[in-house]
Amino acid sequence: MKKKNYYNPPKDKNYNSYDEMRLFLNKSRLLNEQIEFETAIEDVEQENGPEKEEKTKEYTVSGGKIIVHGMNEQELELTDEEKSTYQETMDEFVDQVSDMAEFHALNIYKKNVEWSGDILKFDVRFYYSISEVDGVYIGNANMVKIDDEFLELLTKLKTYYNVFETKWGKLLASRRKTEIETSEDLGTEI
């Protein structure tokens, strides 16, 4: 078996042992920096502790879906008030915006509530969000004719958003208040 030579110094007549030593020192410094960086990353991960994974729980309320996002079982619970508010939200949307709507799941996060659906008559998707990227959004992959009827629908969507934001904003604040009170009872901080 032939011996492998892992280091081949250049065959340059100006190359000397000083250059060779300098090359080894540079490689050594790079390896030390890499080890220090990896150690620092491990230290930060240990300080922060293991990251908890977000959990979800899905509820069906009057034919619609509510998905609650949280880190523990307490945050995943859905109150009767939230269930009835969701039913009211769907009913009011049908009355105030469009009776030809197909609703997607309502997502309740720790700091946000999102809800979307399709308005079948115009083949348009609406999206409501409070707290983080609050507002009303519409989308569609197809062209939509902008006429008085469509503009009226947009006005209704925007107007109903104010009702949605107020209603779900209160419930979101109630969730936060309940979370703080519960953690105080347990003697822990959030």
- Helix percent reads 40-55%
- Describe the sheet with the most strands: 7 strands, mixed
- The overall pLDDT average reads 82
Number of strands: 7
Per DSSP, what share of the residues sits in E-state strands of 2 or more residues?
A: 15-25%
Number of helices: 3
Note the run of SSEs as H and E. HEEHEEEEEH
Structural class: alpha+beta
**Low-confidence blocks of residues:** none
Q: What's the N-to-C terminus distance?
A: 65 Å
Radius of gyration: 30 Å
Tell me, what's the shape?
Answer: elongated
- In total, the number of domains comes to 2
Task: Describe what is shown at a glance.
This protein is an alpha+beta fold and about 190 residues long. It is built from three helices and seven strands. The chain has helices at about 15-50, 80-95, 150-185; strands at about 55-60, 65-70, 100-105, 105-110, 115-120, 125-130, 135-140.
Structure, described:
This protein has 190 residues and is an alpha+beta fold. Helices cover 46% and strands 21% of the residues. It has helices spanning 17-48, 80-96, 148-186, and strands spanning 55-61, 64-70, 101-103, 106-108, 113-119, 124-130, 135-139. Strands 1, 2, 3, 4, 5, 6 and 7 form a 7-stranded mixed β-sheet that branches. Strand 1 (55-61) and strand 2 form a beta hairpin. Helix 2 (80-96) runs antiparallel to helix 3 (148-186). The termini are far apart.
